[in-house]
Structure formats: C-alpha cells, structure tokens
Write a structure and sequence with these properties.
two-stranded antiparallel sheet, globular, mainly alpha, 196 residues, binds zinc ion
Amino acid sequence: MLYKTHQAFGLFSTSLVLINYTHTPILSAPGVLALGVSMLTSIMPDADNPNTIPAKAMFPFAMGLEMMRAKHRGVTHSLPIAALWFWLAFAGRHWQASMGPIHFALFPVLLGAAFGYLSHIVIDLLNREGEQLLWPLKWRFAFYLVSSDGFANSALEVVFLVGMFFVVMYGLALQYPVFGHAWQLAHHAFPIIPAA
Ligand SMILES: [Zn+2]
C-alpha cells in the first residue's frame, strides 16, 4: 500500500474511534493530536522498508530495524507489536497532559496511535505479499487482492478520505449547533444519512 492510502485509512479509523468510543470532540487538543499521531503510526510499520518515505521520516526507528535485520512485513507488521500499542493506551488510561492552559486526557491520543498502527496491518492484508502477523512465527498472511501501488490503492485512498470527511462532519454536527443544523437538513434530504 502507498503511504497516503495508509494515512487515509488511519485517519478514518481514528476519527471513528474518537466519535464512537472515546467521545472526544474532533476540534479539541486531544482530537487533533490523536488524528496527527495516527497519521504517523499508520505509516510506521513500513519503516522496515529502506528508501521509502516512512523509513526516511522515522530514520532512527528505521536504522534500528535495519540493525536488527528486520524483514519487510515482518515484526513491524505483527499483532504482538500492535497489541503493545493497545497495552500502552490502556496503561495510560488516566494520564493527563497540558499544553499551556489546556489540560486533557492522553487516552484518546494513545488510542489514536494504537488504531493508526493496527489500521496499517489490517489494510496491508489486502496485499499480495504476506505479513508475519504472528511474529516470531514465520507464517505469512495475505488476501492477495491488490498490488502495493497502482489504481486500487489510489481508489481506496479516496474512499477512506471521503469516509473520514463524513465521520468528521458527523463529529462536528454533534459538537456545534451550526453543523448540527446543516447535518439535519442533509438527513431530511437524504434519509440514508443517519440523524446526528
Ligand atoms: Zn506495510
């Protein structure tokens, strides 16, 4: 998958979690931070592939992986490593952070990081080259559906970005009356759109 497709799916997944699970307003410090962090963690597993944009963007991590001779779609694409992110998020469930006068819970940000990371592994399953999901076991898993670049990637990127747009709009409709009214109008015009 292209890194932009991963980021689009990471943003889509995280925006869903923020609205449906942690009930974090999108336009808030933890909401914006969670989306920003998920854009990074959603490309982090591909730092195991030297000369790619994720490897260059996270070069200390990429160098560490190279020194460990990590294979592409090996340890970084495994469920045990994704589980570590979720462990961190739930361990820090009550941690607080401050940015100047703003105090907020870190949980939505850590969970956004975890879902960003997991989203990478989930969507890479569509690829033809398998992932070592149960690392350190050597079995590789894949659905063999799409190549790692090409048309399907770009199409998926658009689908996820449109999906994220709707989720964010829904979140804003819950947060601000002006967006809420616009959403209700859209709901009456197109009943397929759920009421906010
Ligand atoms: Zn990958």
